[in-house]
Amino acid sequence: MEGVAVVVLLVAGIGVVVCALWVIVLRDEYAEAEEFPDSVEHAHLRRVAEARVSALCPGAIRLAEKERAGGASDGEESAPAREFWRRFAAASASVERDPVAALRELRGLPVLLEEALRAAEREAVTAKGMDRREDGR
Known about the structure:
Order of helices and strands: HHHHH
Largest sheet: none
Shape: elongated
Structural class: mainly alpha
Number of domains: 2
Strand content: under 5%
């Protein structure tokens, strides 16, 4: 009788392990399918979003250089730059998984980038004026 109980428990244990592995494999296949949709539309939208992010990169580099040269502050002048960097990072991060969200984020970024560049330029001019005044004293 004890031998039968051991065999039953052994078969039940093997069954539980097999079921658990089956659930894990199915879950992983489902997660991969959700994570990387293979539709033509998704691939096209991803390429469009990548191109728009790439088009903003030269301006983003100029902005970073101006911020570094001007000693970016936390004042009102830097608000457009902060907003640009926040939205640019969000769009860049979501290009692969959710290109539609990335395109939504990218919608107003060229205008915001120009605004941030103008604000950084004004800040640099102000900083130069302050340096000249301090040198003159």
